[in-house]
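Hey team,

Sharing the Aquaporin run so nobody has to redo it. Sequence (217 residues) first:
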Amino acid sequence: MTLRRLTSEALGTALLVTAVVGSGIMADRLTDDVALALLANTVATGAALIMLITTFAPVSGAHFNPVVTLVFTLQRAISARLAVGYVVAQCLGGIVGTLAAHVMFELPLLQISETARSGAGQWVAETIASFGLILCIFGAINARANIATTVAAYITAAYWFTASTSFANPAVALARSLTNTFAGIRPADLPGYWAAEVAGALVAAAFSAWLFKPTAR
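Structure output:
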């Protein structure tokens, strides 16, 4: 059972990153319009999220994201030991997803991104992006709504209303630091993103526990 869960998290994150990085490469090749390229990247990511969450949720919960795993661990929905396995699987899966995109588009396999994504605006954006992600997950659970479409809709929107284009995922950010393409982020900028993502997720978890508790009763 544990092996299937870890495989689900690794494969799901790999396919998610392949969709993010691959669609960014494709869009960049097909158009010089940055807005159009971002739109294509957004649509591919949102569509992939619906499929991946629907497919893998019955197996592992379809976290694909260390901050999601962190929040559910704090709520004792999964054990700390399994959570560590999830995070390792997500990070390794994300890296494999980046490499797969490079292979498909015949790019150098090993790359380091040179795209700068730093500064207070970016960090605030990632805090908000992660806050909204966790909030919409618990909101969907509380409303008994479809989590896959809820999360996909939020990420699709957040691509456009956040200055950072809503990474909201430390494992995906790590994987994207290994591609010097449209979706990349400099490794030096990762700590700021990670800190903001964790902070946003923790605040959202605490807020959701208060907001949805009366309804749950």
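The CA atoms of residues 14 and 179 lie 14 Å apart.

Ping me if you want the raw files.
A.
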